# Entry
Amino acid sequence: MKDNTVEMACPKCGQIFTERPAVSRVDNVTLICPDCGTREALASLGVEPEEQNEILDIIHEKSR
Ligand SMILES: [Zn+2]
# Structure
């Protein structure tokens, strides 16, 4: 069996993920998990952390 799935540990939250990583906006180099990528994007828009969690919950429910 051959696939391209690679397990990565997110340096931001420590979560192990296999999805395509996002590039951190902080340095444009660090690869982070999609959740943290979404958080950074929302934070850059001025979204509060609590609201970021709510939005991530919605995203996770939709992808299920
Ligand atoms: Zn993360």
